[in-house]
Fold this sequence. Notes:
Blueprint: E1 5-7, H1 24-28, E2 33-39, H2 45-50, E3 59-62, H3 69-76, E4 82-85, E5 100-105, E6 109-115, H4 121-125, E7 130-133, E8 137-138, H5 154-164, H6 172-178, E9 189-193, E10 196-199, H7 209-220, E11 229-236, H8 245-256, E12 272-276, H9 280-284, H10 289-293, H11 301-311, E13 315-316, E14 334-340, E15 346-354, H12 360-363, E16 365-367, E17 372-375, E18 379-384, E19 395-401, E20 416-422
Parallel strand pairs: 2-3, 3-4, 11-12, 12-13, 19-20
Antiparallel strand pairs: 1-7, 2-5, 5-6, 6-7, 6-8, 9-18, 10-17, 11-14, 14-15, 15-18, 16-17
Amino acid sequence: MSTNTCLTSSVLLSDKENVGCVSLRDLIYRDDLISMVQINFMVDIDFLMSNVKNKDIPITVVHGLRESARLLIEQGKKWPNMTIGTPRIQDRYGVHHTKAMILCFKDESIQLIVMTANMVPQDWQVMTQGVYRSPKCFLKTKDLGLSSSTNASPFESDLIKYLRAYNLPCLTATIMLISRYNWSLCKAILIASVPGYHRQTESSFSNWGLERLAYVLRQHVTLPAYNCHKSQIIIQCSSMPHSPEKWFKEQVCRTMAEFKNRRSALSIKAPHVCVIYPTITTATNSFTGRDMSGDFLRFEKASYDKNHAWFDPYLYDWKSEHAGRQFLMPHIKTYTRTYQDKNGKTRIAWHLLSSANLSRAAWGEYQKNKTQIYIKSFELGVFFCPSLWDNNEENIDLIPFNDLDSAQEDSSGTEVTQIKVRLPYDLPLVHHSQPLQCFTRLA
C-alpha cells in the first residue's frame, strides 16, 4: 500500500538522492501514451513536446499565465494535434495555479497526475517538487455495477466537479471520458480551490478551499485520544503573499486543527503550527543561490518586515539532508499533521500535497461570519489519511519516510500496516536561529 507520491529527480543530485523519484520523461515519454491533458500555470510547449515520445497524439493544454498566452498560441501552431484553453478568472489577483495531467494509454487505462511543477525546464531541474500518480484506472464494467455515473466513486465525482468548474469547451470530452472509468482504486481525496464567492446556502460551500479541507478533516481524520502527543501542523510552501495575522491564526490554523473525534478526544492538546521556509543563509547556499531562488521563493521583504514580530515564532528552516534536498530549494507545497505515539514514534494524521501556497487567493477567506468563502485562484491537491485504507478495522499508520535511509523502517511490534509518506524535509524541525532571518526576495 502506498500514497503514490514521490519527489521529482534532479540532474543536480546523485543517484542515491534520486532514488524513488520521477522525471517528466518517466511520466509522458512513453510508447503507450495515446492522449493527454496538461493543466498548469506556466507552460513551455516546446519543452513539453521535447518530453513526449509520440508527438502526434491528441493533446489539450490548459494554462494560466496570462502574459504568455500569445506565445503559447504561436508555439501551438506547430502542433495541429494540440488544443489550448485558458480559464477565465475575474479577480486580477487570482491565477490558474493548478498543476496536473490526465493521461490515457493503449491498454484503455487512464491516470491522473497531480504535481507542484510548472511545465517549464527549471521546475523539473533545479527545484524540489512533488508528484502524485494515481493507479492506472480501467473502464467500468457492467458486472461491477459501475456503468452509470450514479455509481461514481467520490474521487471520480470530485475530479469531474472540479473540471466542470472551468467551464471550458476543450475539457468537455475529457469530463465525459473520466466518467467511463472506475476510479475506486484511488486512495486519496481531492482538495481543490475554484474562484468565486461560495456561500453556506449553496451546495458548493464545502467543495473548495479552506472549507473543503475542514469538511474532509471532520469526516475522515480520527486522532487517538490517549496516544497523541506533541502534535504539529507543518505548513511548507514556496510563496507567502501578504497573509494577515487574523486570517492565518483564526482561519488557517483553526481549519487545519479540525478532526473527526474532536468532541470526544478532549485530552488532545491544540497542535503546534510550524511554517517551513528557508532562511537567507539556506537559500544563499543552495544550488540556485539568492538571486535565482527569489524567482520562485516569493515572499516580499515589505510583507515580512511588517509581520515578522508575530510570524517569526512559527518559522522553521528548510532542512533536507536526510531527504537529499538540502541544496535544492522547495517549490513543493505540503501540509501535514504529525504526532508522537506512546512509544515516541512520529505518526502522520494526514498529509496534503498541493499546488496551493499559503495565501488567501489560494485557500480563500471566510466572510460574513463564516457564511461564505471568497477564493481567487484555481488550485488542486491530494489528501491522505489512514482511514482511506482502513478496511475490516485493520490498523493503519502513515509514517514519515525518506527513501535514502532504509534504517527508517519502523517496526512497532504490533499488527499495524505502515504506509510510508515521502516528506521533502527532515524531522525533527529546526527553528530559524534568530528573528529576521527568513529569506525574502531582494527589494
